[in-house]
Amino acid sequence: MIEKLIDKTEISFDPLASKAERYEKGAAIRKVVPRSSHQEFIIAQDREDPIDILIKTSIGRIESLLPIRYRRMMESPFAFFRGAAAIMAADLVKTPNTGIDLQLCGDCHLMNFGGFATPERKLVFDINDFDETFQGPWEWDLKRLAASFAIAGRWKKFSNKTCKEFAWHVADSYKRHMLDYSKLSALQIWYAHIDLAELIELGKDEELKEFHQKRIKKAAEYTAHEKEFAKMTYHDGIRARIKDEPPLIYHLSGQEENYTMKEAELVHKRYLESLSEEKQILLSRYSMHDFAMKVVGVGSVGTLCGISLLMSATGEPIFLQFKEARQSVLEPNVKNTKKYDHEGERIVMGQKLMQSASDMFLGWTKDDKGRFFYIRQLRDAKVKPVLEIMKEENMIDYAKACGWALARAHARSGDPSVVSGYIGDSDEFANAVSKFSILYADQNDSDYNKMVKAVKEGRLPISAEI
C-alpha cells in the first residue's frame, strides 16, 4: 500500500474552481491516500545509514568547525534531531504522499519559530529559518514539526502519552487554522499575521505570560545594532572592529581562506544588487568596516556564516548576518524542478513567500568561488522560545501556536481549500500524525545512539565543551 501511495503522480488543480469544488477535490484524495495512512513509519530495507548521511552533509563545510557541529548534536536526541534534517527528509520520501505540493520550510521544528519585528516595528510570531526551503509535499513540514514536539517532550522527561498529545495539538491547530484560511481570499491570507502580544495573552499560565510580556517589552525597546556594537566591537585606530571570541567568532586568516576586505566589499556590492532600489539607497549611506565568521545554530555549523559591520559617516552601526546557502536537503528527495540556480535567492524567495513579513535587508549574493549566501540583519527584536522553562500546558499552547503559524505559511503558497478538504473536520489526521511522531521519536533515539557509537569509534570528531 505504501509503495502505491508514494509512486502516484502529483495531482493538479484548477485555480479558477470554486472553494467548494477545491475542497471536494482535496477530500477525494483520501480515497487514494487515507488519512490514517500517515500514522505509518516503516523503516525502509534500503534505508541509508544516518551517520553516512551526516558525513555527506558535512562535505564542503569548514573542517575545523565540524567537531563543534557534532558536539552540539551530541547534547541530546533533540539537539541531534535539529541537525538531522537531511536524515528525516530521506525518511519522509518513504511515507504516504498526498501529491499536494507547496512551499516548505524544509527544517520545520519548534526551535525554528519565534517572535521578531516587522519592518513596521510590529512584533509577530512566525517561522524564522528557511535554509532548507523548497517545493514539496505539505505534510512533510507538519510531520517534522509534530515529531519535534514529541522528541523535545521526551528530552523534558514528559511521558510518551503527553508527547503524543503535543504532536496531536500541532496537527489539530494546523487543521483548524487551515480551514479558517480556506474561507479567506488570497489577499486576506497575504495580509494575515499572528500578533505576538495577542498570542501570549491567549496563554493560561500567568507566570509565564508575565515572563513573556517582559521579554516583548524588552525586545520592542531593544536597539539591536547599537547594543551589539557596544558589546561586540572595539576601535582599532579610527576603524571599528569586531571582537574575536574563538572558536565561535573569529576573523579568517589569509592562509585559511583567501578572503580580503576588498573581496568582502565585492560580495557586499553583489548583495546590494539583490535589494530593491530604496534599500540600496538606504545602505549606500553605510560602508563596510569589518566582517568575521560566526558559528550559529546546529545544522548550520561548519558552513561559511558570519557577520559584517557597516557604519554610517556619523557613526551609526548596522550588523548584517551572512549565511552560506547550500542545496536544500529536500531537493534530492522531491521531483519538483529547481526554480532558482542561486541557492541564496531560493532561500530569500521562499522566506518572502512563507513569512507574513520578512527582514527589510533580506537579500542574496555570491563570492568568486561560486559559493552562495543570503544576508539579513543580525538580530531584530527576536523573541526565541525558552523550551527549558515550559511546563506541559505551555508546551501545548506553543504546539498550537506553531501549528497555526505553519498553516498560515502554507496557505500563502498552497491551496488552503484543497489541503483543508483532505484533512477534513474529524480527528483522524491529527491522530495519525501524533502516532507517526512517536514512531519517529523512537527512530530518532536509535539514530542518536548510532551517532554516540560513531563518536566513540572515532568516525565523527567532537570538540571539547564550549
UniProtKB/TrEMBL annotation:
This is Uncharacterized conserved protein, DUF2252 family. It comes from the Bacteria. Pfam families: DUF2252.
